[in-house]
Amino acid sequence: MNLKIRSQLSLMMFIEYFVWGSWYVTMGTYLTQTLKFDGVQVGVAYSALSIAAIISPFFVGMIADRFFAAERALGVLHIIGGILMYLISNVSTFDNFYPLLFAYTLCYMPTLALTNAVCFHQMNNPSQEFPNVRVFGTVGWIVAGLMLSFLKVEASVMQMTITAGLSFAMGIYSFTLPHTPPKKKGEKVTISDVLGLEALALMKNPSFAIVVIASILICIPLSFYYNFTNLFLNELGMENAAGKMTMGQASEFFFLLVMPLFFVRLGVKKMIMFGMAAWAVRYLLFAFGNTESAIWMLYLGIVLHGICYDFFFVTGQIYVDNKAPEHLKSAAQGMITMATYGIGMFVGSLASGKVLDAYTIDATIPHDWQSIWIVPAALALMVLLLFAFFFKEEKQK
C-alpha cells in the first residue's frame, strides 16, 4: 500500500468517525435540555442505532457486497444521510424526530463495514496495516468532541447541522477513494451467511457462550455512559464537557498500545474481568464525584474508558477469533458485534431511559444522578460475578 492510498484511507476513517462523534455523544443533552424529551424518548432515540446495527448486515451482505462498489455505496449512503440529518435539524417533536433518526442510522451503520472493506481491499497485510489507518477514526471522534465543546453547541441543534455538512463532505469524498468492487458478485449469499448463524454452533462451548452472554449483558450498563454522560456533566456544570470526554478516547488509544503486555501477563479471563470491574468503578466515581472537591473522580471515570472498552471488547474479539475455526471467523465476529451493538445496546438504551425518568426531580435539580449511576454500577458488578463464576479459561498448550 503506497503513501497516497494510505493517506486517502486515513482521511476516510477520520471523517467517518468525525461524523459519528459529532452527534452521538451529545444528542442526549440536546434532546433533554433543548427539545425537552423525557428519558424514555431519549432511550428510544438511541436504540435506533442498535436496531440499525442488526439490520445493516443485511444491506452489506445481501446488496452492497453483491451489486455495488464499496466506495460508491459509501458515497450514496453518506449523501442520503446528510439530507436526513439536515431534515432532523428542522424538527422538534419526537414523532417527527425518531423516524428521521432511524432512517439516518440505517444509512450510517452500513458505512462502518464499507469503510473497512475499502481498507482491506487495498492492503497486502491488513493485520499490520489496518490499525495504523483505523486509529485516525479515533482521532476524528476526539476532534469532533473538542469542536463541539469549543463551539459550545452540546445542547444546540447546530450539532445536527454540522453532522449534515460532514456527511455531505464524506459522501463526495467517497467517490474519490480507490475502487473496491463488490467482493461477492455473482455468488449465492444466504441470510444464514449474512447473520453468521453458522457461528451459533460455537455456543456449544460453555465458556464461549458465557463470553457472548456477558457481552450482551455488559452493554446494558454501557448504554448509560454513551447516552447520558454528557448530559450528566453539563448538569453538574462542567465546562467543555464534550471536549473533556475525549480523554476517554485518548485513554482507549493508549491502552490499545499496551494491551499486548497485559494480555501475556493476565490472560483472557483476568483481562475481561478487569474491563467489567472498570465499568462498575467508573459509575461509582460518577455517582459520588462533583465539580468541586471531587472533580478528580469525574476525570478518572472518563479516563477509565480505555480499560472499560479495550480490556473487555477488544479482548473479547480476540478470544472469539482464537476460538472460531478459520471458515467461521468472520461469522463469529459478526455474531458478537450484533450481540453487543445490536441486542445489548438496544436493551441498554431503553433501560437507561427508564432509569433516567425514574430519578427525574424538577427543573432546579433535574436528576438524581447518584441514584442513576448506582444502577449501571450494580449491573456491571453482577455481570462480573456471573462471568467470574462460570467462565473457565483453557490452558494454553
Concise overview:
The protein has 397 residues and is mainly α.
Q: Can you walk through the features of this model?
A:
This protein is mostly helical and 397 residues long. It has 2 domains: 1-190, MFS general substrate transporter like domains (Growth Hormone, Chain: A, Up-down Bundle); 196-397, MFS general substrate transporter like domains (Growth Hormone, Chain: A, Up-down Bundle), CATH 1.20.1250. It is built from 15 helices and no strands. The chain is globular and about 60 Å long. The two termini are 36 Å apart. The relative contact order is 0.15.
Keywords:
397 residues; mainly alpha; Growth Hormone, Chain: A; 15 helices; globular
CATH class of the largest domain equals Mainly Alpha
- By CATH, the superfamily of the largest domain comes out as MFS general substrate transporter like domains
Mean pLDDT, to the nearest integer, reads 87
Percent in strands:
under 5%
Q: Which CATH architecture of the largest domain is right?
A: Up-down Bundle
User: CATH topology of the largest domain, what is it called?
Assistant: Growth Hormone, Chain: A
Low-confidence stretches: none
End-to-end Cα distance: 36 Å
In terms of structural class, how would the helical and strand content be classed?
mainly alpha
